[in-house]
Amino acid sequence: MLDVTLLGTSGTLPLPGRYLSSALIRIGGKLFLIDCGEGTQVALRAKGWGIRRIDSILLTHSHADHVLGLPGLLLTLAFSQRGAEEPLRIFGPPSVLPVLESIRVFAPRLPYPVYFIPLEVGDEVDVTDNLKLFAGPTEHDVPCLSYSLYVPRSPKFDVERANSLGVPRDLWGRLQRGESVFVGEREIQPQDVLGPPRKGLKLVFITDTRFTEDLVSFASKIQPPDLLISEGMYGDESMRPKDWDVPHMTFAEAAKVASASGARLLWLTHYSPMMADPSRYIENARRIFPNAIAAQDGTEISLSYED
Amino acid sequence: MLDVTLLGTSGTLPLPGRYLSSALIRIGGKLFLIDCGEGTQVALRAKGWGIRRIDSILLTHSHADHVLGLPGLLLTLAFSQRGAEEPLRIFGPPSVLPVLESIRVFAPRLPYPVYFIPLEVGDEVDVTDNLKLFAGPTEHDVPCLSYSLYVPRSPKFDVERANSLGVPRDLWGRLQRGESVFVGEREIQPQDVLGPPRKGLKLVFITDTRFTEDLVSFASKIQPPDLLISEGMYGDESMRPKDWDVPHMTFAEAAKVASASGARLLWLTHYSPMMADPSRYIENARRIFPNAIAAQDGTEISLSYED
C-alpha cells in the first residue's frame, strides 16, 4: 500500500489557500516528502500524518519555490525531538548542495544527522527494503530530476507446491526473499515455489520541465505508473508567456505524458499563480487523457496492489 | 493616521491558522513590515494591503522564526515587477547580515536594490518624512532589537494670528515646516504662529526578550505608546521550561511593561506553540493592565491623533 497526498499545488509563489507544490508519500509507516517550499511544514502539520516520521526528502531542483521551506522544516524536526538515531536523508541533484549549505546559517546545529545523497539521471536507489527510487530526466533552466517511486511486489508463494516438496514452514520466508534452502539433501530454489513476477506500485512525479519524449520513456519504465503527478503550469497555451521560452508544461502536455506512458491516473499540480481555478481547464487534459484530475491541496489516494 | 495589523502571532513554529509573529504598519500609503518568518508573505497577500508598497522591513533579530520568509518575499517582490527605482531597505542588528548574505543563494539577482541599514540600541532614524524609528534594547540569547515607530504631529497653526501678522497664505507652509519668513522687512518666526507641541502617534514592538526595566524606559520615551505590541510567549509561569533560562516573557510580564510605560493598549503576540488558545490566559495580563488583548492573526487597528 502506498498513500500519497499533495501538500501544495502552487508553482512559483505560495498563495493563500494554495501552498507550494509538494507531495507526501506514506509507505509502510514511513513518510517521504517530495520538495519543500515555504510553508510546506505547515501543510504537513495540518495533514496530520506525523512530522517526525519523515524518512527522506526528495528535492527535484534548487529553485526557491521547491526548497525554501527546508530550513524551517529541519528546525521543526529538531523541535520534535528527532534525535541522533534518526538520520534524515535528502536526495537531489548535486546543484541543491549550495542550498543545503546556506541553510546552515539558519540551523547551525541539528540534533540528528542529515545526509545528502546526490543523484544523477538514471540513478536507482533502494531507499528502504520496499521502496526503489529512480531519478529521471527533465528539461528545465537548472538541473532538475523527475522521480519514480516503485514498491515491488513479491511473486505469489505456492503453498501447495511447498508442502508437496516437504519444505517446512520456517523456511518459507527465505524462499520468499529469493534464497534457496535445503530440505534434507535436496536444494529447493525460489522459482520452485514462487509464481510469475507481479506488478508493483508505481508513482511518478514530474515537475519543472518542458514536454519531452524522454519524460514518457522514464515514466513508462518497468511498468506504467499507477499515478502520474505532473506539473501543469498552464491550463492552456494562452497562459504561456510570449516573450521567453518557458520550460513548463500545459495541461495538454502533461496529459500527453500520462497517455503515452500508460498511466492509470494523472494529477495535475504546480499551477501558475495566474490560474485562479485550475479545474476550469481540466477538459484540455481530459481530451487527451480522460482520467486526469486538477489536484488541489490535500488531494489524496491510497494505491493498492491489483487483484 | 497609522494602521497596524498582525500578520502572524506564533513564536518558534508556524502553525496551521497561526502564522509566525510579524506586524504590518501602514503610514501615508507606505508599508513597513516588522519581521518576516516562513509564510509571512502569504499572510501579507491575504491581508490585501498591497505587497509592492513595502517601503522597509525591520528585523528584530536573526532567529529563523523571524527571518526565514525573507528570501521568498524578496523573490515575490521581484515577481511583482518592483524595479530599479524602488529600493527596499532592511533595518536590523548587524547580526542579521549573514542571513541576508545566505539569501543570495536563493535570490542571486533581484531587479531592485536592497539596502541593509544596521542599527544599534539607541539609534534613531528618519525612515520617511513622517516616521521616526528608534531601536531599543532586549535581553535575548542573540542580539535583538525592540522598535519604536513614532509619527510626529506638527503644532497647531494659528490662522487668526497669521492673518493679524499679515502673513500671506502662500508662506504658511514654510512656517509650518519650521522655517521663518519675511513679511516686508519683518521676520516672522514659526513660534509666532504655531501652538505648543502636540502628541504624535507611537507604536512600540517588543519581541524575544526577558522582562527588564530597560524595556519600560525604552517604551515610554518621548511619550507613552498608543499601542504596545509585545511578545507573550507564555500564558502563565507554568509554561516556562524548567530546565533552562528562557529569555521570553509571560503575559503578566508583558502587561507590566505596558502598565509601567503608560501604554494605552497592549497586544500580546509570539505565542508558544504549546498554547492552543492564548485568550484563555488573558486575565493574567488584565489583572496588571486592563486594556490587554490576546491578539490573533489579522487583529488590526487604526491609530489617529488625539482630539
UniProtKB/TrEMBL annotation, chains A, B:
Binds 2 Zn(2+) ions. The active site is at residue 65. Its cofactor is Zn(2+). Coiled coil: none annotated. This is Ribonuclease Z. InterPro entries: Metallo-B-lactamas, RibonucZ/Hydroxyglut_hydro, RNase_Z/BN. Residues 21-133, 199-271 form the Metallo-beta-lactamase domain. The keyword tRNA processing applies. It catalyses: Endonucleolytic cleavage of RNA, removing extra 3' nucleotides from tRNA precursor, generating 3' termini of tRNAs. A 3'-hydroxy group is left at the tRNA terminus and a 5'-phosphoryl group is left at the trailer molecule. Homodimer. The gene is rnz. Belongs to the RNase Z family. Keywords: Endonuclease, Hydrolase, Metal-binding, Nuclease, tRNA processing, Zinc. Pfam families: Lactamase_B (PF00753), Lactamase_B_2 (PF12706). It comes from Thermobaculum terrenum (strain ATCC BAA-798 / CCMEE 7001 / YNP1). Zn(2+) 2 binds at residues 65-66, 208, 270.
